[in-house]
């Protein structure tokens, strides 16, 4: 097999978007591909041999840091987790930057939107009176938020979500799947004391983070490299929780009575 | 040159991994206005790659655990070369640092009674690693990141500005720590996105830049690990400690080439994976060193019994410390009994049902399936040693994390040396980050607050730093008009040389050869040129990082050549045994030219001076934690009777 | 500049979305090379076929009862103009004034349940509205407000349709029990139709219980599963079904149409129900 590596090398045809805020376009490259390589390897080969200033973000190269997000043949993907073997040898492979965010240069985009949204989600509220070391939580209670904490913040879900991808103007009012999932995570955290501090995450999910914009068309789930079931386990449960607060008279009445009893 | 923008902060933290973020949180909570500078996006630091867990003697799973046992394990793992005071502080404070994470929202796996679950790991006597499946590092980085955001939200409420007292400069690089007199005055930085230079004026600088793995060809480290902090400290006049100790993790992927070096977690062996050579033999039974003979199984039956009943069986030799396993694999491959791609076989497929593998090792299953198209439930993995961690680093004061000899400079995490001695135990790095990250932030903030007069950044220093950074754009070949050197080529040659000549098994002649090669590369690196402009230009970034890699590589090579013994992460073929006399010897690397200038194209003298220093004796109450018979193996005669 | 540049999109003619001025200058609405349109097209075709069929059957007002089978479209039958069904759910709540097909009275509920269902929403938003047509394929609409405004804000009422769907499924279960009679209402018999009804009712229940609102109500709304072990088990069970919600949505849609069509065939005399025992 090791000797076969050389003989299985072939030249692939790539189209890579190059440019910056001033404009740009798809540029053609012919580049060598060896057995077992991923798209990021090819981008690196372009850097080392043909385009030393080709801008790309990457870090761990093992699908754990979420840096090398881009679009390959029009689909949002991690460059390091897309094996060349999924393409045919005569196929032209198109690599572009994420198309929902402002471009910086080549494959690098300005993902500042995501960091701005992250700041708008109120942080975990520690339970008052519980000392560090005295936190007790059952595994079945942390299972749900733990799934969401697998998120590597590659922002592919934010990129593919049509709410902001196709409508720039919605960026002010919509947090995007990643950060709605963060709201869900905190609302499901067994010890989050936001409610006692007067913060109702169920209501703010809709009123401040734009949950209502989501039309659950599941593209976020489709592109998630961590296979987090964003829509089914975070967004829809969050929508149901918002309904509890705002549209369910039975629950509303029940809460009213119980609160009075207390 | 146009005026370079200046900003004033109290503390600047270089690096946004676990140590950097923990330092920044502490400094800000102490009231210091704190800036964090990191090469990548916020939250992408290499800490996310840590899989196993955070070692802390919380005694949640085994009540016999306490900080003394943890201290003992750490010293044994480091073969007694650790700065014992650091190991002590680390073992004492780690539980508090873990519990604190929970108050910031971290969600660790739980025990039945709702506490933080702890798992077994190589070298730890009791189950000690707090973990979240096999993504503990991600949980750590995300928790710290979210705590930073929480602090920024507080500032937003109070001052109307998220970044009033704590700001993260993401995708920025520091190329020089600036000084006035002997003291730190700030940092010279460039923004990767625009290529714009800026200066941060701050009396306290915390280095938290991680390791040096990118100087080696096969490494589990990402591109960021170019030894920036090590080099910044050297250039600022601070010494590096024991740089010869580089940990090679025994199991990195070896195939396909694109993923060569990526880590295969130790849990694979902890859960029953075995190492075999091309003859199908479990060769680790042939490599149990005498000091470990009583603790490891002699037969496959006995080793296999351990997984189910650890009280009545000795553990299988696949679970020997990392350095032992790495050397054994290396020896098998050299003897011609390796796998097709130059590793050995790590097999779980014949040891557990497919369902169990997928449940216990989800991310490994995923990693091999997605990256190598190998189904680990059906066939063995091919693995080999990969450069993983550097134990050596900036020589610091154990209590304050202050770099020796440079007031205002602090270091924490992998960039700091001493804590792990000659070999780091798995799980001790994440706890190290938290314990010493906090201490560095705390003392940097205090230092800044106590200063009556702030050091000033003078214009000539800034101009020099800017000229140095711009050099690659005007580089020329050896003769005028000739093509400049390609930084990518230089980097590849450096990695190859370090891997081949200063790698896992070291020989005197090869290391001498390495120093010559480094001198040649240094000369050529001064001619490294780049195309294009300053905006997000990876070729330029690499050309600048080359300076750092060449500096730390020389430190590693010189120190390794000097230490004529084998200990932990330093193995000399020509000096195979551990020598008790070397226990008290620390090797310090300093810049040969104390002005911090980069001259030295001289292959013999080089850029680095080496100094031998003797360490302080271990405090008696700490020594009393060990049996006399054990101490005899490590300590020199005169130490024993002191 | 190292790279050649094309002219920047002029302001004022900025088409927005992926072709917004700040984004990477790429003219194409998408660069997908796979057959991304197959799925929305198939979904739209499938839903359309059901709409056409069910509209015809709902308004037909005939051939929906042949002892012992009643079409699920017409059960329970709530008007006086229903075909008499012995022991069947024949409740004349609406009396004689209702002149249209009695199916319309009851179909509102299952229709509403499916129309507001989280899966069907995805299906028709993609298939009919092209919002979006497929992932990373630009949608053709200039503005988008999602489910924030009337009428789509009413999608939040899904759980009430779930509440209504449960008794309807209960009645269909009763209908299925009644199929263990022969055409003379004697108990202890079954025909091929009994099997059709059985399969249908199992799928109807599975679809109903796999509902996201159901998952929320039985346990999803809780903060601490550990304090509610029974509801936790129910939540996990519903969660297992919920993972197959799309499959169950289609399977039950087809089965309910088939059950109706089966009744139509035997009621119109096109086919004789083979008796098993």
TrEMBL record, chain A:
Annotated keywords: 2Fe-2S, 4Fe-4S, Iron, Iron-sulfur, Metal-binding, Oxidoreductase
CC terms in the record's Gene Ontology section: plasma membrane
Entry-linked Pfam families: Fer2_3 (PF13085), Fer4_8 (PF13183)
GO molecular-function terms, A-Z: 2 iron, 2 sulfur cluster binding; 4 iron, 4 sulfur cluster binding; electron transfer activity; metal ion binding; oxidoreductase activity
Cofactor: [3Fe-4S] cluster; [2Fe-2S] cluster; [4Fe-4S] cluster
Entry keyword annotation includes Metal-binding: yes
Family to which the UniProt record says this protein belongs: Belongs to the succinate dehydrogenase/fumarate reductase iron-sulfur protein family.
Protein name (database record): Fumarate reductase iron-sulfur subunit
Organism: Streptomyces longispororuber
Automatic annotation (TrEMBL), chain B:
Every Fumarate reductase/succinate dehydrogenase flavoprotein-like C-terminal domain range: 491-588
Catalytic-site annotation from UniProt: 322
Domain of life: Bacteria
Keyword tags: Coiled coil, FAD, Flavoprotein, Oxidoreductase
Bias (Basic and acidic residues) ranges: 309-319
Ranges in coiled-coil conformation: 504-531
Residue ranges, annotated region (Disordered): 300-319
Cofactor: FAD
InterPro entries registered for this protein in UniProt: FAD-dep_OxRdtase_2_FAD-bd, FAD/NAD-bd_sf, Fum_R/Succ_DH_flav-like_C_sf, Fum_Rdtase/Succ_DH_flav-like_C, SdhA/FrdA/AprA, Succ_DH/fumarate_Rdtase_cat_sf
Cited Gene3D superfamilies: FAD/NAD(P)-binding domain (3.50.50.60), Fumarate reductase/succinate dehydrogenase flavoprotein-like, C-terminal domain (1.20.58.100), Succinate dehydrogenase/fumarate reductase flavoprotein, catalytic domain (3.90.700.10)
Protein name: Succinate dehydrogenase flavoprotein subunit
Organism per entry: Streptomyces longispororuber
Gene name tied to this protein: sdhA
UniProtKB/TrEMBL annotation, chain C:
Membrane found in the keyword field: yes
Region feature Disordered, mapped onto this chain: 1-20
Top-rank taxon, per record: Bacteria
Record carries keyword Ribosomal protein: no
Parts of the chain that traverse the membrane: 36-56, 97-120, 160-180, 186-207, 246-267
Keywords of this entry: Membrane, Transmembrane, Transmembrane helix
UniProt protein name: Integral membrane protein
Biological source species: Streptomyces longispororuber
